[in-house]
Records
---
Amino acid sequence: MPRIRVVVVKGKEDVTIKIADRGGGIPRSKIANIWRFSQSTDGEEENYSDFGIDDVCRSKLRGFGLPLARIYARYFGGELTLKSMEGYGLVAYLYLPRLGDNYPFDSVLVD
């Protein structure tokens, strides 16, 4: 499995979290769907999932994480953006406003 790289940086106005992977990315034709609830970039051929089946719509429960994460980011005055390179990987940026100066770090790299 490809490594995931995480960088956390404290700026003057924001704390930015960058998460990058080499998992193949998302095709541009499917990017608009990632912000819609109950959508997935995986096709119906997905059979390795542990997701349950919804009793109402009779489909797999998935596609809530990214829309909810963006809603929470915006609620707290930030933003969540994704940049995809199909065939290579994806980079997610989470920007959150600084709420004070009591952070024990200036930047963190997790590899």
---
Amino acid sequence: SSGINAEYGGTCNKAKPAFVQRDWSAIVYLNSPKQGGEFVITDNKFKVTQSLTPSCGSIVGFSADVFHGVKAVQQGDRYAIGMWFTHEISRAIDMDYLQRRIDAAREKQSPKKEEL
């Protein structure tokens, strides 16, 4: 599952260090592997209950506390974008803080005027 602390045959403990801010997950497939790479949902004993063959342009969404995984790609490549969502504003990313971090990193990388 999405960073959930899972124990074989046990419980799904949604607590740190798991990614507890995640309520919903989604995967967008950017290509179709020739063989393998299926997305799977399992029960709490990791027995596959559902399987989805990735197809370019498809998206799968699911509750973030669902046990899931990906089978190995046997032939070709698998390209996908993983996304996570929350319905609690208190768990959302502080965008102002994130922007300040990005600006600081850019400032470190840009040449100083004296160097030009």
